[in-house]
Each structure stands twice: as C-alpha cells, then as structure tokens.
Design goal:
Elements lengths: L1 H12 L10 E3 L2 E4 L2 E2 L4 H14 L1 H20 L4 H25 L2
Antiparallel strand pairs: 1-2, 2-3
Helix pairs in contact: 2-4, 3-4
Length: 106
C-alpha cells in the first residue's frame, strides 16, 4: 500500500523537472534560468542538438544510462529507495532525450 501511494505521488504530484523547464524556447528566443540568450545562439543550439542526437557516443551513453538505471530497479535494487532512484534516473534521461529531439526539429 505504501509503495502504491509513493508511485502515485511520483507520477502525478512530484515536482519533477520536465522538458519544458530547461532551455526554454518561446517564439524565436531561448531562455536559460530565465535569462534570454542572444538570437545568434538559436542556430547553434538547433544544429548542436541535431549533431548530438546523431553522435554514436551520445547514443551509447543514453543506452548505457538506461541499462544501469534498469539494473537498479529490477536487478540490484535492495530497497525501495534504490528502485526510486533508478526511476528518477530514467525520468531524467527521458527529459534530456525529449529536449534534444525537440530542439533538433526546430
């Protein structure tokens, strides 16, 4: 019962960072920490996201992070804290992948 409540809170109420919270793009401007970046950075950010997405080392890193997080959840997790930390890691990796994907499509 306790874990069900925790799962619900993590999924629905937890104040998690989302893709919309980081490197915000509104109109034709980027914002980091509430500060507007120079307009000349827009093209660099978009092309950088496209390049990063295609890099083999990036793909390996993301794959390995997911594998290690899954190990913490399903294989090596001893306590619920271990499992929850693995879930948080997967969430963070997903946020990063979504951001790179969306930036590469601008």
């Amino acid at each position: 019962m306790r874990q069900r409540i925790l799962n619900y809170l993590l999924k629905h109420l937890f104040n998690a960072i989302t893709e919309d919270d980081v490197l915000v793009y509104r109109g034709d401007k980027f914002y980091v920490g509430g500060m507007e970046l120079p307009k000349t950075d827009v093209e660099d950010i978009v092309s950088g996201a496209r390049g990063l997405k295609e890099m083999y080392v990036w793909q390996l890193l993301m794959k390995d992070l997911k594998n290690e997080a899954n190990k913490r959840i399903y294989k090596n997790g001893v306590t619920m804290e271990d499992v929850n930390f693995g879930r948080a890691t997967l969430w963070t990796v997903n946020v990063i992948e979504q951001k790179i994907e969306n930036l590469s499509k601008l």
